[in-house]
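Regression test case RT-17, inverse folding.

Input:
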């Protein structure tokens, strides 16, 4: 079932009706703050207002993070040998989703609010959006030190894109490695060779 909404907060579980996927509006690829100003404003937040982000904001956020920006399928952040091994899971009040850059959709993996599992700090559950960067190590040589190092570097590029987008759009964000990977991985039904590298919350300043 496909649902297109103006606000992702409106996606709810009602009886046996589940939102299997959410079609996002086209990302806004123009405008925004000049790069040097965004760099000057880039910072890490540890407090978030509970206001929800619109589907337009989330679409543009995910495109800026790791969307497709060229006809050949390459992305807004580099990846070693173009492995594109990073998947972005999106934790919302309405459930957990994985971002499809190709179709510009959020595919639901869980109809449950698990934002609190996106970190160990108390503020995590208040942020309206938490991005979880998951590396599919099978795409870059398997679960070995070299593949893990590659995944860590590639997620760093994506995370910085999120920081700059938030600075430009008047949002706040904070990345962290302190995540209960076992509990979150089980909820997201990750395979052993899918590595949770980092989580990053996004919202309005508190």
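Golden output:
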């Amino acid at each position: 079932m496909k649902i297109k909404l103006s606000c992702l907060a409106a996606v709810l579980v009602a009886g046996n009706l589940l939102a299997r996927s959410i079609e996002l509006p086209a990302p806004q690829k123009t405008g925004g703050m000049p790069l040097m100003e965004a760099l000057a404003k880039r910072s890490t937040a540890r407090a978030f207002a509970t206001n929800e982000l619109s589907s337009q904001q989330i679409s543009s956020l995910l495109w800026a993070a790791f969307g497709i920006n060229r006809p050949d399928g390459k992305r807004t952040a580099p990846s070693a040998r173009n492995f594109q091994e990073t998947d972005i899971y999106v934790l919302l009040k309405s459930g957990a989703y994985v971002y499809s850059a190709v179709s510009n959709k959020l595919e639901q993996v869980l109809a449950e609010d698990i934002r609190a599992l996106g970190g160990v700090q108390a503020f995590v559950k208040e942020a309206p959006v938490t991005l979880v960067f998951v590396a599919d190590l099978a795409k870059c040589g398997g679960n070995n030190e070299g593949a893990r190092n590659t995944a860590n570097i590639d997620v760093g590029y994506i995370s910085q894109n999120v920081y700059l987008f938030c600075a430009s759009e008047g949002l706040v964000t904070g990345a962290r490695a302190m995540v209960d990977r076992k509990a979150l991985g089980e909820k997201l039904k990750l395979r052993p060779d899918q590595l949770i590298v980092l989580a990053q919350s996004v919202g309005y300043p508190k």
